Structures are given as structure tokens and as C-alpha cells.
Amino acid sequence: MEGCHPPRGLNFNGNMADNWRRFKQLFEIYLIASGNEVKSSEVKVAILLNAAGEEAVEVFNTFNLSAEDRKDFDKVVNHFEKFTTPKRNVVVERFIFNQRCQEEGETFDVFVMDLKKLVKSCEFGDQSDSVVRDRIVLGVGDASLQERMLRESDLSLERAIDLGKTAELSKIRAQTVQGQNVDFVGRRSGAQKPLSSREAKPLSVVSAPYDRAAVTNDFSWFIALILKKGLDLRDFILSKSVTVSLRLTILLFFTILVKFTVGFEIYNFNFKIRYILDTIFITYFQYLFIYIL
């Protein structure tokens, strides 16, 4: 059939077992697609050697096969299988398989695909699916997904894979939505009008630069208000027939209230100015205290 091409040679460098496995799979696909699968065994051997290349022909010549067996496609393939695939140490293969865990940044699909590849050389037979399932549960990197799998008493390999793909997709979608929200908030924040000095929240002395003009304009009103309220309080106390203890209680409460208010309002001041203002207010209320008594 036109458009069908055989695999490009058998590579004997590197991992020959993997090279042969890929070549064999591609060659079988080519035989079916090209219609050569129905050809005689001798013809298929010739097609195989032609596709495998010159080095493969030299290896073929070393096989201990009779003239008749050299025309048997299955026997030739079997000898190539033995030549490229050395005898495996099952203990080592299973050790490698059981050490396999999902690596950081590795997708769930890649993790599962590698497990399925590794299990082929472990000779688990009919237990391969259950062993892969167990390795997925033990080696998956998402702790919440692992807990979800452990809650299912009849977990199958297909179900474990489905849960893993769903969890990974949900996480990707959540990250996408979160990124969009952050971008939206950033655009909204950038578009907001800057607050005035009266509207802005107090900043720490270290992070906020000291602006003498802004502080003077802002607190001239505030200090005048505090002084006026203090005088109003003095007039109120003196105009009523109240006991000394009640006078002291009212004055103490007002002093504490103003102290905390001033503390918040002058948060933008540097240390020296805060100390001066504190001294002024303490002296002022001492004066009120003496005057009232």
C-alpha cells in the first residue's frame, strides 16, 4: 500500500531491549498497513532484514539456525528477541518498580505510563493490574488524592487512574481560576483613586516617609478639637455640684480616651514629635486636674 514505510533500522546502541521493542512494534504495524502480513514466512523474513538494516543482517548470520529455520519468521523474531533482551533479574526489576514514586512536577499520566512499562519486566502475570494499582496509591504525590483512594475498599486500576486524572484536572482548573482572580484584583487595585492623607490608614514610622507640612495641616484641626473638648469638660464639671471623686473619675476617663486617640492619630509621627505631643497633653491634663480640684 502506498504511503506505508517500514521502520528506519534497528539500533544496536544504547538500550537494545527498548530499541528492539519499538522496532518490532513499528514493523508489525507496517506489515498490517502494507498488506504484507499475509505474505509467506520467507518473504516476511526478507522484509524484516531489509528494514532492520545491515548490522541486523550481520547479527542474523550469527544465529544458530538451520537453512529451513532461517526462513521461519517467528523463529527469526524469537532469536532477535533473545539477542537484544538479556536475561532479567526479576528481583532487581521488582525493586525498581516498587521504588517508583511520582516525582515533583511530574504529571499523573506520565507516572502511570512509566509504572505500566516497568511492570512488564517484573513477571507478575495476572496480578500486574493490581500491583500497578497498589504502586499508584503508595507513590502518588498528592496526599489528599492518596487518602481518597484509600477510602475505596474495591478500588480497581481503572478507578485509581480516573481519580488521579480528575484530581489533577481539578487542581489545574483551580490554579487557573486563582490566577485570573489575582489578575482581576490587581487591575482593580491599579484603577483605584489614591486616598487622601485623612482617608489613608496609619503607616509605620519605618515604612512611611515623614512629611512635616502634611502633619502640620492634618493635626492643627485635631489638637484644637482636643483642647476645646477639654475646656468644655472643665466647664461642665465646675458648673455642676459634683463630688471630688466623680470629678476625678470623669477626668481620668477623658484623659485615657484622649491618650489612646492621640496615640492612633500621631502614629505617622517620628519618635521625637510623638514625645513632645505626649508631654504637651500630659501637662495640659495635669493643669485641668489642679484647676478643677
UniProtKB/TrEMBL annotation:
It comes from the Eukaryota. The chain crosses the membrane at residues 244-267, 273-292. This is Retrotransposon gag domain-containing protein. Keywords: Membrane, Transmembrane, Transmembrane helix.
